[in-house]
């Protein structure tokens, strides 16, 4: 079990029977990769700045600022920091877990959840009664947090692993499936069949979901829509905006406006996981 990293000098406090939830403040360098590890407790990882890419149990999640990823106890996971990350990790004792213990997920972080997390982290040691009340309320809010379909299934086949790994590093890559087939050593037909059988979606749909998850991160950092569209490989800002609205129900401009109005919080945006293919 990994409990300390050399670049992370702040000690972490594990949950106990008396204190079933602890908040740990982290500030991590750009592009750090934390190797596979697990915890004896559940974890809710919540970036305030930057984003996380987490791989666990055959899935990958891109977690932009003001969303959080739930990781149950004993599930091995790898974490990659996308940019410099300011992070809150909420450790929760298994017996107090407010979300299912058999699967990871990404959830919305409400303004109230964020305020409680910050308040608990700032409490003095002697404020036991207040801490207990805040912890109970935070656990309730976490249990009610809307889930987001930001997960990407990960392949077992080594050729798909090469392809999907390269796309996660560069979501804007414009190579067609036929061009990828030359690079990974499998025919286009074989790759298409593997996407359908292993990942239960087409190459275009998988790439599109990856790009949309990355778009949330970039827009959340205040990047201009045109810049995001270009960075993610869209032909035009209009094409990007249309795809974003179809998936999230609002335009990128409206999304940014809602984030600004809540001073870095989030609106209650839905997510349609049935997205059209990216041709």
Summarize the structure in words.
The protein is of the alpha+beta class. It folds into 2 domains: 21-148, Jelly Rolls; 155-261, Homeodomain-like (Arc Repressor Mutant, subunit A). It contains 9 helices and 9 strands. The chain has helices spanning 111-122, 128-143, 158-169, 177-184, 188-199, 203-220, 225-231, 237-248, 252-261; strands at 21-28, 33-37, 42-56, 59-63, 67-71, 77-92, 105-108, 147-148, 151-153. Strands 1, 2, 3, 4, 5, 6, 7, 8 and 9 form a 9-stranded antiparallel beta sheet that branches. Strand 3 and strand 4 form a beta hairpin. The longest helix is centred in the last third of the chain and has 18 residues, at 203-220. It is globular. Mean pLDDT is 84; it is low at 262-276.
Condensed summary:
This protein has 279 residues and is an alpha+beta fold.
Observed structural traits:
globular, 279 residues, 9-stranded antiparallel beta sheet, 9 helices, Jelly Rolls, Arc Repressor Mutant, subunit A, alpha+beta, 2 domains
Distance N to C terminus: 42 Å
> How many DSSP E strands?
9
Please tell me how large the radius of gyration is.
19 Å
CATH class of the largest domain: Mainly Beta
Class based on secondary structure composition and strand pairing: alpha+beta
SSE order and pairing:
Blueprint: E1 21-28, E2 33-37, E3 42-56, E4 59-63, E5 67-71, E6 77-92, E7 105-108, H1 111-122, H2 128-143, E8 147-148, E9 151-153, H3 158-169, H4 177-184, H5 188-199, H6 203-220, H7 225-231, H8 237-248, H9 252-261
Antiparallel strand pairs: 1-6, 2-6, 3-4, 3-5, 3-6, 4-9, 5-7, 7-8
Helix pairs in contact: 1-2, 7-8
């Amino acid at each position: 079990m990994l409990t300390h990293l050399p670049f992370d000098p702040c000690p972490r406090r594990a949950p106990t029977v008396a204190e079933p939830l602890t908040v740990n403040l982290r500030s991590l360098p750009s592009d750090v990769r934390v190797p596979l590890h697990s915890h004896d407790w559940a974890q809710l990882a919540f970036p305030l700045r930057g984003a996380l890419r987490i791989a666990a149990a055959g899935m990958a999640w891109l977690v932009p600022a003001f969303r959080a990823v739930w990781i149950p106890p004993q599930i091995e996971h790898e974490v990659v920091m996308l940019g410099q990350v300011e992070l809150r990790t909420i450790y929760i004792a298994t017996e107090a877990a407010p979300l299912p213990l058999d699967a990871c997920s990404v959830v919305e972080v409400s303004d109230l959840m964020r305020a409680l997390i910050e308040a608990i982290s700032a409490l003095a040691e002697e404020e036991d009664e207040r801490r207990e009340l805040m912890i109970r309320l935070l656990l309730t809010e976490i249990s009610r947090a809307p889930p987001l379909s930001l997960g990407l299934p990960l392949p077992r086949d080594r050729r798909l692993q090469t392809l999907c790994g390269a796309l996660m590093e560069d979501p804007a890559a414009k190579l067609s499936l036929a061009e990828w087939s030359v690079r990974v050593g499998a025919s286009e037909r074989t790759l298409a069949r593997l996407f359908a059988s292993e990942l239960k979606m087409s190459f275009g749909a998988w790439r599109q979901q990856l790009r949309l998850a990355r778009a949330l991160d970039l827009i959340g950092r205040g990047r201009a829509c045109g810049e995001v569209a270009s960075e993610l490989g869209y032909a035009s800002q209009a094409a990007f905006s249309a795809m974003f609205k179809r998936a999230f129900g609002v335009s990128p401009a409206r999304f940014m406006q809602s984030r600004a109005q809540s001073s870095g919080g989030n609106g209650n945006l839905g997510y349609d996981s049935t997205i059209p293919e990216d041709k």
